[in-house]
From TrEMBL:
Superkingdom: Eukaryota
Enoyl reductase (ER) domain: residues covered: 13-347
One Pfam family hit: ADH_zinc_N
Coiled coil: none
UniProt keyword list: NADP, Oxidoreductase
Protein's UniProt name: Enoyl reductase (ER) domain-containing protein
Organism: Powellomyces hirtus
UniProt-listed CDD domains: p53_inducible_oxidoreductase
PANTHER family, A to Z: QUINONE OXIDOREDUCTASE PIG3, QUINONE OXIDOREDUCTASE PIG3-RELATED
GO molecular function, one term: oxidoreductase activity, acting on NAD(P)H
Length: 352
């Protein structure tokens, strides 16, 4: 059986437990493309999963990594549109950098979790063609942030033209994507929060009309001031518990909030239910990774129609703050853990 190189979690826990190793190269099923990966992008869930703190959804691969860019090397018999040599990128529910196969189960049982590899299998209906003028690095950083932001703003929050939106962690990969998509939708006020002056600058440069340093001032009070007491129509939140009460206070009548993460914790000591009724609020949680392949394929179709042309024309910026060779995967994980990134962290597979 031919082999491929992979990044393994030798020991769940800190980034130092990551190292390069080898595994069997996967074979495409009927509707799959076998892609030789050029680059992949990091996401918070990679870190949580590496630490053993991310509950992998039922049916999803237990292997880390959800987005990649590379070249089609082989295709299953049922593939109709893509062909060998195509440059593609994509978002999967997991195992983006390695395919779960029975021959790998011994590694998994012994605690060696395969994370990143040279090859990945992609169902054809999830593949996204990379525009000619877009690099592999940018393409690898495109799917997760854009899918998440698109779904959060338009499918869940139903953001309409002229409405005000509050986007937390504004300089994160998802945050910068959401700011730009809200601008594309011609939202009213696009208000972002972030923790440094440099991050606030990036939020503004990408289309935020207002940027709040949540470490220096109360975003609840600023929203009240900016919206003249009305509150915002929508919130995209990743923070959870520590922002809960101020988020509820910042929503206006008929406000909607999508909860996508718990960077600030999951448990509330006390919660006053009355604003839910009095302001007629809608609050919805979502994890993209637990969605069915059919749902993700529909989202992929919408993103390819509405967002990919903006990437190709340069109207949409996929901001990459740092590119690491995969021999430095430990440093890449540590960089994200330190909250240093303004935009996406990308890892390229090198020949070493
Ligand atoms: N549910 C889903 O479907 C889904 C999909 C994708 C991503 N996500 C989640 O979305 C979030 C953003 O993802 P990403 O990959 O774009 O993140 P990222 O680039 O790693 O950025 C996250 C940023 O959040 C801010 N932050 C961290 N802890 C915080 C806290 N306790 N309070 C306030 N701000 C905090 C930090 O910026 P500051 O310096 O500004 O504090 C940090 O740089 C993550 O939580 C991720 O798990 C969810």
């Amino acid at each position: 059986m031919p082999s491929m190189r992979v990044v393994e979690v030798k020991k769940p826990g800190s980034a130092d437990g990551l190292a390069l190793g080898t595994a069997d190269k996967p074979l495409p099923n009927r509707n799959d493309l076998l892609v030789k990966v050029h680059s992949f992008a990091l996401n918070r869930m990679d870190i949580m999963q590496r630490d053993g703190k991310y509950p992998v959804p039922p049916g999803a691969s237990p292997i880390l990594g959800v987005e990649f860019a590379g070249v089609v090397e082989a295709a299953g018999d049922g593939v109709t549109k893509a062909k060998v040599g195509d440059r593609i990128c994509g978002l999967l529910s997991g195992g983006c950098y390695a395919e779960v196969r029975t021959e790998l189960s011994a590694d998994l049982v012994s605690g060696h979790i395969l994370t990143s590899s040279q090859y990945v299998l992609v169902p054809e209906d999830l593949a996204i063609p990379i525009p000619d003028n877009v690099s592999f690095e940018k393409a690898a950083a495109f799917p997760e942030a854009q899918f998440t932001a698109y779904q959060a703003l338009f499918w869940i929050n139903d953001l309409k033209e002229g409405e005000d939106v509050l986007i937390h962690a504004g300089a994160s990969g998802v945050g910068l994507a959401a700011i730009q998509l809200a601008k594309w939708k011609r939202a009213g006020r696009i208000i972002a929060t972030a923790g440094t002056a440099s991050k606030l600058k990036h939020c503004k440069e990408h289309g935020a009309t207002h940027a709040i340093n949540y470490k220096e001032e109360s975003f609840k009070e600023k929203i009240n001031e900016i919206t003249e007491g009305k509150g915002v129509n929508c919130i995209v939140d990743f923070i959870g518990a520590t922002y809960w009460n101020d988020n509820i206070a910042s929503l206006g009548r008929d406000g909607r909030m999508v909860l996508l993460g718990f960077l600030g914790g999951m448990k509330l000591d006390q919660f006053d239910l009355s604003p839910l009724l009095l302001k007629r609020l809608k609050i919805e949680g979502s994890t993209l990774r637990s969605r069915s392949e059919e749902y993700t394929a529909r989202l992929r179709t919408a993103v390819v129609k509405d967002v990919l042309p903006m990437l190709a024309s340069g109207a949409l910026d996929v901001r990459i703050c740092k590119v690491f060779p995969w021999t430095e995967i430990v440093d890449a994980h540590k960089y994200m853990e330190g909250n240093h990134n303004e935009g996406k962290i990308v890892v390229t597979i090198t020949s070493e």
